[in-house]
Amino acid sequence: MTDIEIARKVKLKPIEKIASKIGLGKNQLELYGNYKAKISAKPDLTKQGKMILVTAINPTAAGEGKTTVSIGLADGLNLLGKKTCLALREPSLGPVFGIKGGATGGGYSQILPMEDINLHFTGDFHAITSANNLLCSLIDNSLFFGNPLNIDENRIVFNRTLDLNDRALRGVNVSDGVPNAVERKDKFNITAACEVMAILTLANDLDDLKKRCGDIIVAYNKEGAPVYCRDLHGEDAMTILLKDALKPNLVQTIGGTPAIVHCGPFANIAHGCNSIQATRLAMTFADYTVTEAGFGADLGAEKFLDVKCRVSGLVPNAVVMVATIRALKLNGGADKTQLQHEDLEALKKGLPNLLKHVDNIINVYHLPCVVAINQFTSDTKAEIAMVKEAVEQTGVQAILANVWGKGGKGTLELAQAVADLCEKDNSAFTFAYEDTASVKEKIEAVCQKVYGAKDVVFLEKAEESLKLIQKLPDHQNYPVVIAKTQYSLTDDQTVLGAPKGFTITIRDLEIRNGAKFIVALAGKMLLMPGLSRVPNAVNMTIDNDGTIDGLY
Q1: Looking at the DSSP assignment, which residues form a beta bridge with residue 376?
Q2: Which domains does the chain show, CATH number per domain?
């Protein structure tokens, strides 16, 4: 049975009933039909339950199932009698129609209504896209009407956005052939990588959102000074477009667990976390919050811990590291067409990738950790035993979880282990770098401590951008977000496993002054993905009664 077929068999409960499981009343909801709602309640910082962060090894074509494990684990904790809530990211249309497909879990560990969540949901991504592009319109409008801010049209740094993969938009000409307009070069970023997405994710309330929008650096003038969104008086209009998108969304799992799904920055080109608002709300109303970081732990977990935790003051009580034996074999050089067959040699070679991520959690960040082996029917007893033995030599437990086939029932052992870990002391938590470190030192710390690099090289363009950033007030305390391939610990997606002695190349730096972080572009990473040769979109169908197939 496919994921869609499983989802359609489930009889959804009214969203008010789901909300009541964690004490949310109808008066704290804004309904979007029967099964979706915005939450109007505010977080209570004096009532904070336990937080469990789910992350994973570097993603492969074999699949890891981080979101599926997050959902199954939340259902498992509820089956153990723990009042639990999920806090996940919203899917982007880019991967849905591109190569990856939907992002709402799979099998009997899904959040529902799956099709709605993967498509337009409650319109948050559209609001973010509109707010971003409104600001772009204001920039070009100011140029058209005499350029009163003396903007240098060759140094406009705020770009348009679209929530789709479209490589043709990596470079465009705007105002081409428009009479009396200033023709210039621009580009589109995907919405999940745009600064407005990051701002919405990190904002505490409407006032904070408006201030952050106003602080966006949109360009530099002809004297080299920054021009801000507030100079264009765009922050109020942007906030008006974003006012409903700021409110987190509530849905449900197949097992009936409340799931707060909100915002969706990518981890390879942004900071990869759901909103601070959503996580705090879940922690206010539930005793256990299961949340996830994007992509591999070197990207998703690093940014969750070094950016989101730094900004919010939240610290996970436990970290779950997800791996599949299939993915580990692929990391060890196995033929991707033969992953269903036992291959202990490839598994042994691929295990260092998992062990490096575990080492980061326990020795860089000093947090309690457990490994979840996301089970496939092809996994053999010898392969499972090899993974468990290797992991347990680090002092960390490895537990088998059948989340796809059994949902929460397949995670009961994992759920109990996680609940036990949550009782351990997490006060030893440390960041990979301190606030007071220089921008270069912060980047080097992540590359060397977390990725395992020997050296970091800054290209000439990065050095030029760094000099520009150093002239700006308050930049010194900003965390860094490294945009890097998710497929490798290096900046070369073809290098798998856990290599040593490699060099990370930083080709440019960009400041996100509204989001209050600095983006370092590593290797060939781009902020607008392209479609694959055969994108997922061309295999989708919809019939006359609206039934969709091919979303996964």
Answers
A1: none
A2: 3-11+50-119+248-421 (3.40.50.300), 124-242 (3.30.1510.10), 439-522 (3.10.410.10)
100 has pLDDT over 70: no
Catalytic residue list contains 257: no
pTM: 0.95
Active-site residue flag, 100: yes
402-425 confidence digits (pLDDT tens): 999 999 999 999 999 999 999 999
pLDDT at residue 473, rounded to an integer:
81
243 is catalytic: no
Percent of the chain with pLDDT over 70: 100
Active site residue 267: yes
Name the 3-class secondary structure at 483. Answer: strand
At 499-548, the pLDDT tens digits run 999 999 999 999 999 999 999 999 888 889 898 888 888 988 889 988 88
Please, are residues 48 and 284 in contact by the beta-carbon 8 Å criterion?
yes
Can you tell me the distance from the alpha carbon of 404 to that of 43, in angstroms, rounded to the nearest whole number?
A: 32
Does 323 participate in catalysis according to the annotation? no
Residue among 8, 13, 100, 155 flagged as catalytic: 100
Residue 89 annotated in active site: yes
Active site residue 68: yes
Q: How far is 156 from 154, CA to CA, in rounded Å?
A: 6
Specify the DSSP class assigned to residue 447.
I
H or E stretch at 373: strand 369-374
CA distances from 100 to 203, 263, 444, 531, 552 (A): 29, 18, 31, 10, 8
Residues near 416 by beta carbon (within 8 Å), at least 6 away in sequence: 80
